[in-house]
Amino acid sequence: MSEKNFILPNKLEIEKRYESYRPAFNEILDKIENLLKQKINLPSNPTYKARIKSFPSYYKKILRQKAKESSESIELVTLTDMIGIRVICAFVEDLALVEKQVVESFDVKEIERKGADQSFKEFGYESVHILIAIPENCLPESGISPELRKNLVCEIQVRTILQDAWAEVEHELIYKSEFNPFDKPLRRKLASINASLTLADIIFQEIRDYQKKLQTELGERRNSFYEKADEFSEEMLGQSHHQVADSSIIGSPFSKGSIDDLVLTALHEHNTGNFKKAVEIYTQIINSEPVPPAMVLSVIYKHRGMAYFAQSLYEQALNDFKKSVEYDPKCFRSIYYEGIVYSVQGKDKEAVECFDNSLAIDAFQSHVYYRRALALFNIGNYTKAMEDVNNALKLGLENEDLNTLKLKLIKKFDMNM
Predict the structure, then answer these.
(1) Record's Gene3D superfamilies (predicted)?
(2) Are residues 259 and 128 located together in one domain of the fold?
């Protein structure tokens, strides 16, 4: 472009024009951020960072990309990244969920995956950039020209915490300082740091996946334990108990390497009704070398006790729950499970003592109040039993058996009046 035909942009005029829109941009970003918080639903709440491009960065970019337009236009020349919001997620799996929810909730103009085509030797940051049109309800009533209303977009950047950390550092070291590391040792260092962060993201995701599997298996196992205990309670209250469908015994989908893998495999065998196999694996973990930490042994004894309980092997179950408490005296669930075994065995006084001890550690267990109420009812302490029924109700327990027990207690009080 020759100097004769080119009018140089007036930096002061452009800056004045740009800064005049800052209040409007802030209003738009606040409204879009609020919309994003309403629309994005993740297990771990993301962090949001809204930003308006600084004028020096804006000016450098328009000189590179839109110099002619900026020198001729009386309107503000727009860039796609003038205003933006980062959605910073905890885990890699969250990125696709956020992208999907943004696409479903906004008018998306473009999606770009930064760094997706880089080799492992390169050190650029990774990020998903989604350009959205500004929703009508996010535009200010005044202060924005019709032309700007039409052209303005907001850039939504979706990253993990580690991707964002790397992007911030890279921006300071390379982009912002206009420094490009050509020497190989420095490039290798940067590539190594980037690779380490990427690997950390992958490992965090693997841990997250493991936790999900573990929680699913634990939930199923705990439900089956309570169902068996409920059968006994329903019989005691004179109700016909529901039938629990038999679980088909299938092969475990989990590998059998570390203790973590063995725990998942044992829980899976437990949940699919293969109790003997589950006990075998729990025992393998207990007897493993080196000896597992006390906290691990407490958990495994508790699980094995539940597997014994499912087979009606009550003495073995009781011994394992006691062992669990030996290794972790604060394990209120194992103490509670001891009480359930005593209840099934008809030893209500011992059961009440266990329920007392469990509630002394955690007083907010609605089911323990209910179980203690049952045991107190059996030994004739109706006043205290009614107190426990009311405590269970206060804590939000909704249980047909609880209501049945309350009616039985009311009848007892009526008979004694």
Answers:
(1) Beta Polymerase, domain 2, Nucleotidyltransferase, Tetratricopeptide repeat domain
(2) no
Q: Are 58 and 82 in contact (CB under 8 A)?
A: yes
Mark whether 109 and 217 lie in a shared domain. no
Contact call for residues 276 and 284 (beta carbons, < 8 A) = no
Which of 115, 109, 114, 134 has its CA nearest to residue 33?
134
CATH number assigned to the domain comprising residue 255: 1.25.40.10
Say if residue 41 is in the same domain as residue 117: yes
- Per-residue pLDDT for the chain (417 aa), expressed as one digit of tens each? 445 566 777 889 999 999 999 999 999 999 999 999 999 999 889 999 999 999 999 999 998 888 888 887 878 889 999 999 999 998 888 999 999 999 999 999 999 987 655 554 444 556 899 999 999 999 988 777 777 888 899 999 999 888 888 777 776 666 555 555 556 676 677 777 777 777 777 777 777 777 777 677 667 766 666 666 666 555 555 554 444 444 333 344 444 456 777 887 888 888 788 889 989 998 998 998 888 889 989 989 998 998 898 888 999 999 999 999 999 999 999 999 999 999 999 999 999 999 999 999 999 999 999 999 999 999 999 999 999 999 999 999 888 888 899 998 998 877 654
- Cβ-based neighbour number of residue 359 at 10 Å: 19
Residue where one domain finishes, among candidates 340, 362, 384: 362
Count of CB atoms situated within 10 Å of the CB of 381: 17
Quote the distance between the C-alpha of residue 146 and its chain's center. 43
Per DSSP, which regions of 256-404 are E strands? Answer: none
Distance CA 415, CA 417 (A): 6
Domain C-terminal end among 326, 345, 362: 362
- Same-domain check for residues 159 and 224: no
Question: In this structure, are residues 161 and 89 in contact, taking their beta carbons and an 8 Å threshold?
Answer: yes
**Residue 193 domain flag:** no
Residue 155 CA, distance from chain mean position: 26
At residue 84, φ and ψ (nearest 5 deg) are -160, 165
CA distances from residue 274 to 221, 308, 328, 346 in whole angstroms, order as listed: 12, 11, 27, 27
The residue range of the domain holding 101 is 11-180
Q: Is 378 inside a domain boundary?
A: no
How many separate domains does the chain show? 2
CA distance 192 to 197: 9
Q: Which two tokens stand for residue 208?
A: 């997250």
Claim to verify: residue 292 and residue 151 sit in the same structural domain? no
CA dihedral 46, 52, 56, 62 (to 10 degrees): 100
